[in-house]
Records
---
Amino acid sequence: MLRGIAVLLTCQLVGEAIVAATGVTVPGPVIGMLLLFTWLQVRRVDITAGASGDPGLAGGTLRAADVLLRHMQLLFVPPAVGIVAYLGTLRADALPVSVALVGSWALGLAVVALLAALFDRARVEAAGPVGPAAGEGA
Amino acid sequence: MSDLLDWARTSPVPMVLLTLVGYLLGCRLRDATGGHPLAQPVVVAVLVVAPVTALLDVDYRAYLDRVSLLSFWLGPATVALAVPLHRQAHRLRGFVMPMLGIVAVGAAVSVTSGVLLVRALGGSDVLQRTMAPKATTTPVSLALSESLGGIPALSAALTILVGILGAIAGPALLTLLRVRDRRARGLAIGSVSHGIGTARVLHEDEVEGAFAGLGMGLTALLTSLLMPALAWLLFTRL
């Protein structure tokens, strides 16, 4: 578990270092996520390593990640409390802000979901008549 | 008595405990309602924390400082999103390149529609720039708002709001649109409602959660890359 946390922090550290060195406007942890994914894939880490009590680095990483992700919403409480502090400043612009927020959110959601679903359907059809199980695993 | 009150205002213990209790109440409410979409633990926690900090006269900046212990873990948790993605990596095959294109289109739609809707309803130039990066995860939203000439702290608040909106209403809207593919659902939620939307779907389904984390990461990446061109188009051409 502690080793797993060390792995997560190492990925974040390298991510932050890359951001600082290149000046890209992507947060260090997002780069760290891509680094960890690459590491897990290259090492072909067993996806059940966390549950099977694997004492190594890989098992620890999976366990630490699962603990953090199970309560991810807790970590958003501090930034979310800030909304209350800003609601007052929004009052004058309530209409444009609320309509743009909800409208553009719904539009973005629909565009991504429908395009992804469309692509998936096209691919399943292109693959020919396969069983649902084969489609799932492909 | 006033010593005790001073301690309550300056020590991290009461604020961290308050946040934790609010969150746990939220979890109980979610479980008691069978996972009702409105019963998001983060929302319940805010409703518990905000009045108590107001009562104790602890302003937001001070509160944020006391609970930095909790906020710290948001970074490692974001890195940890690689794990569900690793577990679902076999579902990525043949989907990577189209997904990049789809998320890029989604990012452009989010930014453009946000700016144009604010403009159409008479919002100021600064407000349009503040709205532009709201679909990205909070640190990106802050940075992009700054470079665009928006109000970064307000962008962060809008970002959190759109995240909460996604956690509450995202899955229902997708069901209404008849999108059943769990990869498409996850990708879409992560693309418009970043970590907060991801946190909800991750709790309900690992495939959706994994793709939501990916959608969030790619949206952060692609919005940052596309923003200079979009800003030029939206603020000098249109």
---
Amino acid sequence: MSIQDWIKNEVETNDVVLFMKGTPNFPQCGFSGQVVQILDYLGAPYKGINVLEDDELRTGIKEFTNWPTIPQLYIKGEFVGGCDIIREMFQNQELQTAFSKKGIEVKQSA
Amino acid sequence: MPMNANEIETLIREALPDAQIEIRDLAGDGDHYAANVVSESFRGKSRVQQHQMIYDALKGNMGGTLHALALQTKAPD
């Protein structure tokens, strides 16, 4: 199975996937850590995949969506964004809407 | 070889001649910047598409030479 197929399978068989540096409990990059904080705050269930464990994955994920940086968040197979976009969407409540539109219950922040 | 703010601005301007570009150096180490870009060519595009336009303009420097570029993009009001 090619790395592209493997990624495709991961994003299609898990509702929410975060390709990140490190793990949800030990993020190893500030940007990955910020997205983890937002997802934890919302109580969104997600699968964290550590791209540092596999160089082929680390480059493959950037080709998968033509997006040059990590972290990358996927909801129901769709690429939502990197750290900047997720933070901006969170601040404008768009992230909460995106989750509930896709049938994933999260805490609606104040 | 880190990048300086002018190089980033020049590359973005080459791709988006009408853009208003504001670059802030976040760490003084040549690879952590923030950029606000306002351009008519963003109109009707999603944030992901807008940011991809910037990454394409940076011709592969993003994620390599340039470690971090916090982006804020929008079309003019």
